[in-house]
Amino acid sequence: MPDITSAPLLLALTALASYLLGSIPFGMVITRLMGLGDLRQIGSGNIGATNVLRTGNKAAALATLLLDAAKGAVAVLIARALVGPEAAQVAGLFSFLGHLYPVWLGFRGGKGVATFLGTLLALAWPAGLAACATWAVTAALSRISSLSALVAAALAPVWLVLLGYPQMTVLAIALAALIFVRHAANITRLRAGTEPRIGKA
């Protein structure tokens, strides 16, 4: 973690604003606007891009992916510009928590993969690109979105250390741990060999 030099009140306001930004359920907003139905009643019921893809609308899934990633990135970039590097990490954490546990949906949100990658890209873009590449390579080889997310999350702290951003590894480990928690059911299916592949129900 970087040295904390900002006023506690500023950091608290950063946390609140970032949480509220992260809690915007773009997947639900997009599917409603495009007349695709209630996302919570489709597929896994998750509000993320993978479940939006199950509607059969690739444009909606891509828009959800980009906007969910942008939530984390925008929160980090604004906090860094207005407050400082420690606020950027606070923003990354709380925008991520907002996506996972949005107050508007009874604290039942997404699994955080896109927001995690967007946050990482804004915090340390070389490590973010490495994590995105990890996801892409794993997805190409396995065709399993959840496995790709888990591998990318697990390796993100390693990329941060190798690429010169050790001060961000504690945050990355915390976010990766939350991704594993949110993917508990997926991990069970992966072990059983029943996890669906990308593009399947």
Description:
It contains 10 helices and no strands. It has 201 residues and is mainly α. Helix 7 runs antiparallel to helix 8.
Determine the structural class based on helices, strands and strand pairing. mainly alpha
Quaternary organisation of the protein chains: single chain
Uncertain spans = none
Computed Rg: 16 Å
Share of residues in strands: under 5%
Helices and strands, in order, run as: HHHHHHHHHH
How many structurally independent domains? 1
Labels describing this entry:
single chain, 201 residues, mainly alpha, 10 helices, 69% helix, globular
Provide a quick synopsis of the model.
This protein is an all-alpha fold and about 200 residues long. It is built from ten helices and no strands.
SSE arrangement:
Elements: H1 8-22, H2 26-33, H3 49-53, H4 58-82, H5 85-100, H6 113-123, H7 125-142, H8 145-162, H9 169-182, H10 184-192
Helix pairs in contact: 1-4, 1-5, 2-4, 4-5, 4-6, 5-6, 6-7, 7-8, 8-9
